[in-house]
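Sample 1 of the test manifest.
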Amino acid sequence: GAGVSQTPSNKVTEKGKYVELRCDPISGHTALYWYRQSLGQGPEFLIYFQGTGAADDSGLPNDRFFAVRPEGSVSTLKIQRTERGDSAVYLCASSRTLQETQYFGPGTRLLVL
Amino acid sequence: DQQVKQNSPSLSVQEGRISILNCDYTNSMFDYFLWYKKYPAEGPTFLISISSIKDKNEDGRFTVFLNKSAKHLSLHIVPSQPGDSAVYFCAASGAGGSEKLVFGKGTKLTVNP
């Protein structure tokens, strides 16, 4: 596709459950980023990948959050033992290389009941 | 501690007039600044950027000004159009060599016909 795609677009889960959020970057983009946007806030950085490796994961809030990008393309953000405070829009972005413009997907709206 | 601040939550202007959106930052290590536009239920869309070695960048109706000594940047939209109505986010990167974007909370622009 032409842009970054994210699935699912919406996810409702119960407290304590495990969720996976998927991101398909723009074809050929080597850098991939995850952000989280809570209501009334700007996006907050979680983690970014250069190729398959996590170059900076300093934004992951705790060890319940984990992200992978095994083949350097698609990435999955995994959240264990979800809490109500995890409810937010999870945004993925990609860029052709590091230091180039980041292009965002539409986001996954996660609601933890 | 907000490193990027957008102190006006909202702004309303008449169609055809100039819109000026402001942004302040605290971290002098930022070396790249961006503006994103966001419509409801969509991801942020890249609008315009500026490197810290410049003080102005122009793209059509959009101009970004950077005042490094004041740690301030602004986005000018001339002339404003109703389709410009959206939330505008200021973002910065480069501190500590990281490519992660640090966002402000956003300013909701309404352009009235």
